[in-house]
TrEMBL record:
PROSITE patterns: IMP_1, IMP_2. It is found in: Cytoplasm. Its EC number is 3.1.3.25. It holds the Pfam family Inositol_P. PANTHER family: INOSITOL MONOPHOSPHATASE (PTHR20854), INOSITOL-1-MONOPHOSPHATASE-RELATED (PTHR20854:SF4). SUPFAM superfamilies: Carbohydrate phosphatase (SSF56655). This is Inositol-1-monophosphatase. GO terms for molecular function: inositol monophosphate 1-phosphatase activity; metal ion binding; RNA binding. One of its GO terms (cellular component) is cytoplasm.
């Protein structure tokens, strides 16, 4: 195993176990609003500190981008760790046991290793570039599709960018004609891993941040998924708009997204 994946897993398990333990004692959770419909808790910050400490113990010179603390510029700017210490904070705050820890390592701009950990189910999704994706060490594959008939599509509402609601809901209505159902589970990192594991047939969301996607994106691609932006290109890390599914699934979803989305979101 890649040594950095080993450290990423150690960090994700430490943080995940801390988050799960914190859920047992909800009166100790303090939540602060940091933006429109955007909250952070003391547990997000504690989990992030645990992850950063674990990384820096092995790799003191690497750069780190963490959701809550921002950029830590290391001596080595070629290696960048991208961390979402708690993906699914809203679920966590409500006591809904679906959230994850997401850690990816990019070397010279390419994601090399990734892990997403769901501490409530003890499910660890991992990937290494060129070596496939795993759930608890067993190989996972995306579900191959002919069309969208019978499919369950994961998504997230643009709750922090309500200016896009109309366009987003138009896409959903059109997709709903062809697919069977939707899931809005509340952790983008897990949504991408669920596509990788064939639990979801596809996934789309807009307005994400790099740390929501960095790890899940590699895991989905290594499981055979196509990951694109809303224009069918590869700029999703920049635009924050992402589609993931098997090749045929992505093609079908993109067609509907492109026919129904307005210009502001088609990138
Ligand atoms: C959020 C989750 C959610 C997605 C939001 C993200 P956070 O991350 O991934 O599923 O719909 O857009 O911001 O804030 O819980 O880390
Ligand atoms: Ca997130
Ligand atoms: Ca987060």
């Amino acid at each position: 195993m890649h040594p950095m994946l080993n450290i990423a897993i150690r960090a994700a398990r430490k943080a995940g176990n801390h988050i799960a333990k914190s859920l047992e004692n909800t009166d100790k959770i303090e939540s602060v609003q940091k933006g429109t419909n955007d909250f952070v808790t003391n547990v997000d910050k504690e989990a992030e500190a645990l992850i950063i400490h674990t990384i820096q113990t092995s790799y003191p010179d690497h750069s780190i981008i963490a959701e809550e603390g921002g950029l830590i510029e290391g001596k080595d700017s070629d290696v960048q760790w991208i961390i979402d210490p708690l993906d699914g904070t809203q679920n966590f705050v409500k006591g809904i046991p679906h959230f994850s820890v997401s850690i990816a390592v990019r070397i010279k701009g390419k994601t090399e290793v990734a892990c997403v950990y769901d501490p409530m189910l003890n499910e660890l999704f991992t990937a290494q570039r060129g070596a496939g994706a795993q759930l608890n060490n067993a190989r996972i594959r995306v579900k191959a599709l002919k069309d969208l008939k019978g499919t369950v599509i994961g998504t997230g509402f643009p709750s922090r960018q309500k200016q896009h609601s109309e366009s987003y809901l138009k896409i959903m209505s059109a997709l709903f004609v062809d697919c069977a159902d939707f899931r809005r589970a509340g952790s983008a990192a897990l949504d991408l891993c669920y596509v990788a594991a064939g639990r979801l047939d596809g996934y789309f969301e807009l307005g994400l941040k790099p740390w929501d996607m960095a790890a899940g994106e590699l895991i989905a691609r290594e499981a055979g998924a196509i990951v694109t932006d809303f224009a069918g290109g590869t700029e999703y890390m920049k635009s924050g708009n992402v589609v993931a599914a098997s090749a045929r699934g992505a093609k079908n979803m993109l067609k509907i997204i492109r026919e129904n989305g307005n210009e502001a979101i088609l990138k």
